Amino acid sequence: MASKPRVKIPKSVAAGDVITIKTLIKHSMESGQRKDTQGEAIPRDIINQFEASFNGNVVFSVDIHPAVSANPYIEFSAKVSEAGTFVMKWTDDAGAVIETSNDVAIKG
Amino acid sequence: MNISRRAWLGTSAAAAVAGFFGVSGNAIATVEDVEKLIGEFGGSATAEDGGPLQLTTPEIAENGNSVPVSFVVESPMSDDDYIESVIIMASENPTPEVATFHFTPGSGIAQASTRMRLAKTQDVYAVAKTSKGMLYKVSNNVKVTIGGCGG
Lengths: 108, 151
Prior knowledge:
heterodimer; A: 108 residues; mainly beta; five-stranded mixed sheet; three-stranded antiparallel sheet; 0% helix; B: 151 residues; alpha+beta; 2 helices; 19% helix
């Protein structure tokens, strides 16, 4: 459905820091409100769920509705108290899942 | 031909808007729908105005297809006192829900930003729910010069 998402996340942080994570995924986010040239409704096709977990625990998630723009951009925070891996997951209406993972190390 | 320029501009603008909504003209949500959603979101609690919740939207959005929206809720974000979720709603879109954000103490700060579609000039609502069941509500008016419920 979509190409590889972009995730901007620091590679190493001081323990206990709250970091900002920025994500962008390419997707048309067809709202289901539009009609094609024949007047037929174009079926809805959006990413309806985003989830971020750190070392297996969900830290942040979003229920997404058609009012979110195409190529959804999501920025959020997370607290990092140990080295580990962030896994981001996007799920679309068809149930397809795109996953990325990013390692974060502790400075020093 | 006796069409004044002003009248013609008016019709073409209306036609352009109809284009964005689809020819049949879809139903538009109302403030009541927003109130109902807040009820479903927060249960029996009554939403307090403002409080620790800050919503940032542009005053004027030139393109309704991509309107930046962000919020931050002041909270200790500890295990027993944190922001559980924040719902963003657009009162006059075809459907009022934009997105619901779920936080955990591991989020560190209850903040997020995204970009949304706005069909026309309207109020954007944010409601935050704490882990103790408190509700905070704010709304911002956003003027949209080109609507964007089509995409």
